[in-house]
Amino acid sequence: MSLKTLSLMYIPTGAWAVTPLRIGFIFTVTVAFAGIGHLIRGVSRTGAIAGGVACFVLFAGAGPGAFAALFSVFALTWLATRLGRARKQRLGTAERREGRTASQVVANLGIASLCAALFAFGGTAMWLLAMAGALAEAAADTVSSECGQALSEKARLITNFKLVPAGTDGGVTLSGTAAGAGAALLVSVVCSVMGLPAALLWIPAVAGTLGMLCDSYIGAVFERPGWINNDGVNFIGTAIAAGVGVGLSALFR
Asked: Which of 31, 132, 205, 231 has the fewest CB atoms within 10 Å, i.e. the most exposed one?
């Protein structure tokens, strides 16, 4: 079965926000989501604003399923950052107490939001799969990093497998990688709310996992020497995941 056929059978085309009532509903949900995120210190004040914009674009462009996927990303990353927090504070790798900043939010959700907008205007399932892949990578990257630091003292550089302290840029652990892959799979399952059939759910899961591994490699090669910061690495990682989603979707054309 082709991707085009699956799109016609399962996936609505065009923007979801097509009536004033829906737009008002999305705006209300967005404000509440951003406010709660800031209240529980998941995001800073600027992060809440950036997250609200991303939420609105995702919801308006791709519908309730996109919001469900975004919510799952937020929940997974919020829980992961609090796992073993005392230990991470001793290591100096704990997330900022006030939550993620606007730049961090954009780095993790910017590509997914762009894909949702392209889906809204283009109406092709390719962009929906790319969006799902980017969201899966955003969850996988954070969960793998946070769980790796909480559960392991040592990591191995993805470039040469040398032992390094957990939390080192480009360092990977078995526990963290497994947790990250699980997070990507979970976000992919949540994406079924969008109407994606089970036959396609493997695409965002694989895209998110590959993006997570590429993120670690870029961190080792470019972030450790100081050529790029973590926001840049995260942005590239989600872009790679979206690209993988587009590429894999070509198999169903």
From this structure: 31
**Domain hosting residue 228, numbered range:** 3-252
CB under 8 Å to 29, separation ≥6 — which residues?
Answer: 55, 59, 67
Q: What region does 30 belong to: left with phi over 0, alpha with psi -120 to 50, or beta?
A: alpha
Supply the DSSP symbol for 100: B
Letter string b/e over residues 110-120, b meaning 16 or more CB atoms within 10 A of that residue's CB: bbbbbbbbbbb
Number of domains the chain is built from: 1
Q: Could you give the strand order of the β-sheet that contains 154-157, starting from the edge strand earlier in sequence?
A: 163-165, 154-157, 171-172
Q: What is the pTM of this model?
A: 0.91
pLDDT, position 167: 81
pLDDT of amino acid 200: 83
Pair of tokens at residue 36: 């709660």
Report pLDDT digits (tens) over 41-90.
Answer: 889 999 999 999 999 999 999 889 899 999 999 999 999 988 876 666 66
Q: Are 101 and 49 in contact (CB under 8 A)?
A: no
Let me know: does 187 contact 203? Beta carbons within 8 Å: no
